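User: Show me a protein chain along with its predicted structure.
Assistant: Here is one chain, sequence first, then structure tokens.
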Amino acid sequence: MLDVLRRIARHRSGSAGAVLVLLFVLVGLLAPWLAPHDPLRGDLSRAREDPSREHRLGTDELGRDVLSRIIWGARLTLRVGLIAVAIGLLVGVPLGLVSGYVGGTFDLLAQRLVDVLLAFPGVLLAIMIVAIMGTGLENVMIAVGIVSIPTYTRLVRGQVLALKALPFLEAARALGQSQLLILARHVLPNTMSYVIVAATLSIPGYILGEVILSFLGVGVQEPSASWGNMLNQARSIRALTSFPWLLFVPGTAIFITVMAFNFLGDGLRDALDPRRVSGGKA
């Protein structure tokens, strides 16, 4: 673990991404104490005010403080990313393990199910799921999580197939270890580095998935503070020419967060695979 941390520290973009991700997580966790105003309380007499000392990033069309809504939006985005990853891992990793190791009919059926999910573009599948289940934060998290399952299933299955015929697994079987013990003690640990990297690199996609759904009006609904519905509200009032901060502020937050997770994922990929380390350069 210390070796991994040292490699990330030497990886320029990886270390920068780690710092930004840590900052993002802290902002999300500490939102109730960091936000200067109630993100849901509006004052129509102060709608669309320019940035000022009282409202550092201005106010929106309902007079709500944009900075407070951005801070609370980080909290919501963090929840969506973590829950989506959890759903993908809890379903996709065991399915990929068993599918790759057992093979046969189970593998055939599991991979056909994955093919069905992959037959739809991710955003379209998420919209279909939300349309069936209804809008709202919980349903958005479930929809994005379901979309993520094929990624982990395919990844883990591929790694298991590569490990399956290696001598150390043959030795474990010869010693009479049960199939479940072999999966838990030998196969799963040898796939986890790939899963960790894939999960980190996938989080930006989950964040963008929530943003897209909210922007289209089928995700997180008002008055919840979501970066996606902030963009949607700014678009609906054509804010680009008259109130540009209503677009640029949430857009910049999304851009920085997505890039931070991408940088961290690149750093983890190199840190967990020493052959890819190139003198600490990104």
